[in-house]
Amino acid sequence: MASIQSTLFEDPFFVYLALGLTEAIIVVMWRTGGRSGRWVATRLAVVMALAGATFAVERLVVTDPEQIQNALQDIAESVPAGRIDHAMDYIDESYAGWGAVKSNSAVRKMLAAAAKKAVQTYNVQKISLLGKPRVEVNDKFAECKVTIIITYSPEGEPLQHAMSWKLDWIKRPEGWRIEQAKKTTLDLLP
């Protein structure tokens, strides 16, 4: 079921490939004289309608993994832009991960203050996600590993720093929130 959902809603490349091959077979059958023009036109119209429906479904349905990937992208864009409070909206009230002394609502304020200080101290210019994070969803919980590239310039010349994180997410009525974050590696890029 998960692979069908992923194929239809997240990455329908193989559906388009199958439809393209189907069209090619129909055209070959027509060119070899095996079928009438009306038969070919009808079949091609059906294949094109299926391709259009696949495109519409893929664009209209946002799966849980896509929601989390969108949230990660939003966080990555918000922090360098100075919209730290917006990024903190993705931190759950019960957050107990990296940087949290204890689990309470003051954690968001503490994390926001640390992020603001880091952005200012290191002159963070950009945060990029390395690749598309793979998200494993299990009902109202999800887990993903993400690697980010932080571009900063503390003394004028841009530098890059890579960090990898394991994030545990929880689905709340207002959307997916980070419940725990754990650094998994810390590597400097050349």
What is the end-to-end distance?
A: 42 Å
**What coarse outline follows from CA principal-axis ratios?**
elongated
Helix fraction?
A: 40-55%
Any idea of the CATH topology of the largest domain?
Nuclear Transport Factor 2, Chain: A
CATH architecture group name of the largest domain:
Roll
Beta-strand content estimate: 25-35%
Mean of residue pLDDT?
A: 85
Q: Please report the total strand number as a whole number.
A: 5
Number of structurally distinct domains: 2
Count of DSSP helices?
6
| Class based on secondary structure composition and strand pairing | alpha+beta
Alpha-carbon Rg, integer: 23 Å
| Poorly predicted spans | none
Please, what is the oligomeric state?
A: single chain
Q: Main β-sheet, in a few words?
A: 5 strands, antiparallel
Which CATH class of the largest domain is shown? Alpha Beta
Following the backbone from N to C, one meets helices and strands in this order, namely HHHHHHEEEEE
Describe the structure.
By secondary structure, the chain is an alpha+beta fold. The chain has two domains: 2-60; 64-188, Nuclear Transport Factor 2, Chain: A (Roll), CATH 3.10.450.50. It is 47% helix and 27% strand. The chain is built from six helices and five strands. Strands 1, 2, 3, 4 and 5 form a five-stranded antiparallel β-sheet that branches. Helix 2 (13-31) packs antiparallel against helix 3. The longest helix is centred in the first third of the chain and has 24 residues, at 37-60.
